Amino acid sequence: MKKYSKEERSWVLYDVANSAYALIISAAVFPIFYKSVAASAGVSNDDSTAYLGYTIGIATFILAMLSPILGTIADYRGLKKKFFSFFFILGTLSTAALAFIPSDQWILLLACYTITAIGFSGANVFYDAFLVDVSSEERMNEVSARGFGFGYIGGTIPFVVSIALILLAQKEMLPFSDAIASKISFVITAVWWGLFTIPMLKNVYQKYYIEREPNPIGKSFKRLSQTFSDIRKYRTLFLFLIAYFFYIDGVGTIIKMSTAYGTDLGIKSESLLIILFLTQIIAAPFTILFGKLAKKYSEKKMLYVGIIIYIIVCVYAFFIKSVLDFWILAMLVGTSQGGIQALSRSYYAQMVPKEKSNEFFGFYNIIGKFAAVMGPVLMGITTQITGNSSYGVFSLVILFIIGIFILVRVPNPKEDATVEIN
């Protein structure tokens, strides 16, 4: 592969930037901190896990409503960067604000977390759509995979600093508690996110766009309706989005609920943090490997591999009995979580009309967000009904089975992207 351009490198660095949030806030430190705060307030482990699932569902539902509308408007010249910047700023400021919420206010903590999730996911809608502006179709798989891969590597740096602060505070080697250390990690996340976003803001521009016109909001709603009709005309797009709806739901739920699940199993917080750190280390090379193998064997075959690994994860989680089992589970997730996300993004990017990338990525993200409502709620309800988090994780296996069943029927986008559905 030829040398990466300045735009491609800047785009990849945003994955480094937001990976700190994905790891520290979504997956590791915040869930453990929240579980501790909720437990201190008398909330049971199963209920606090369920409430976290419901909160994630609410945040993703809100963004699901906004994504296609904002994406349609953002296709006008010069607006993609502005929308990206707005959600990026919302995400970083609210992430820093988590550090200033009183430690006994678990409901307020979840409310602020909802805003951070909207900022993080909202920025990603436009970040993903920028892939068509920074790279060519033949380079998209490797560039997308490189973004996730470098993101996993870069995200470990603030994560390690956060772990060190928390563990040292727990051992009373620092003049503050582990709760304060967790709050410091939220500020570190916001600062890291901000610093590594600077190249993206400086060097990445919207190359494909629609010229502005009178009454842009009204026209955007009309184009949104037309886009929905257009999606149905693209057989590959339509089928892929249905498959994506199911399998990405399971992926996102496992990533976001893993530490809460580990806590329910009785695994200590320091062990969870170390496990998650090593998962990131494993995920980085495997994500890049997925990108290279996709070039040799096709994106679709590598997506099959990733989905099958997640099915194994769900089944294995049902029988988990020890910390070693959780280690094995986490390592399995690490081998495929980045690859399946990166290839889904680049596979879809090859199908969409470039000048309407925000519109079509708006639908891509609304599918992901609506799916992300279902998974955590499904896991939360199953956990509360059975009183066992293992049943909650196992319930996700049906999502992967449906996803791979539909993905098998997705035609080659290079050959059949515009075939209408009869």
Automatic annotation (TrEMBL):
The keyword Transmembrane applies. It is found in: Cell membrane. The keyword Transmembrane applies. InterPro entries: Atg22-like, ATG22/LtaA_families, MFS_dom, MFS_trans_sf. Gene3D superfamilies: MFS general substrate transporter like domains (1.20.1250.20). Signal peptide: none annotated. It is a multi-pass membrane protein. Residues 236-422 form the Major facilitator superfamily (MFS) profile domain. Keywords: Membrane, Transmembrane, Transmembrane helix, Transport. The chain crosses the membrane at residues 12-34, 54-76, 83-101, 107-127, 148-168, 180-201, 237-259, 271-290, 302-320, 326-348, 360-379, 391-408. PANTHER family: AUTOPHAGY-RELATED PROTEIN 22. This is MFS transporter. It comes from Lederbergia graminis. The lineage of its organism: Bacteria, Bacillati, Bacillota, Bacilli, Bacillales.
